[in-house]
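so i finally got all the pieces together for this one. its two components total, 199 residues if u count the protein bits. some of the lines might not be protein, just check the labels. i wanna see the whole assembly predicted at once instead of chain by chain like last time, that was a mess tbh
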Amino acid sequence: MRVFLTLVSFYLCVLVFINLYRAIYGPDILTRIIAINAIGTKTVMILILIGFIYERVEMFIDIAIVYALLSFIATIVAAKYFLTRRSIE
Amino acid sequence: MFHTLQVIVGGCFVVAGLFFFTTATLGLLRFPDFYCRLHATGKGDTLGTLLMIAGFIIYEGFHLLSLKFVLIPLFLFLASPTVTHSIGRAGVTCEVEPWEKREKEGEEAA
């Protein structure tokens, strides 16, 4: 099971790098915000998987919850900025 | 015996979650427009997270830690629609043009 969880977290890392391509070369700024939000969701999953691999999941679950909250706040603030700025140039 | 069943069912849930994460990433990579990409990631990531957490709970067994595991999808089901709505509204306010399929050369639009 431990090998399986390690393979799952490696696969999620590959998906994070594909999302990172969109975050760097995205055509406009809002696409970049979406990509960063998706990376945040996958990072929460990777944190829980690290907790299972090292058998310290009761510690890593708290870190994952805090990371989810921070990622949500960052995305909301970025969207709010463009909502009041009314232009993406 | 029971532990083997737990591992198999939990692993199936985790693989199903990975499938939805993959479709969300493919949508983000291949769709032509900002609105289409928002549509792909907003739903795929939420369902993938729910399935993976369900797999972890089944694998770990039901006890006090499962309550903390449930907190993450519960929060994400509130946060993900809020984020998607907020970014989409920012796009509409900034007057981002939606993508349209272009007609081929020499063909008249009906």
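Chain B has one domain: 2-93.
Chain B touches chain A at residues 7, 11, 14, 17-18, 21-22, 24-25, 28-29, 34, 37-38, 41, 45, 48-49, 52-53, 56, 59-60, 65, 68-69, 71-72, 75-76, 79-80, 82-83, 86-87, 89-91, 93-94, 96 (CB under 8 Å).
anyway lmk what u think
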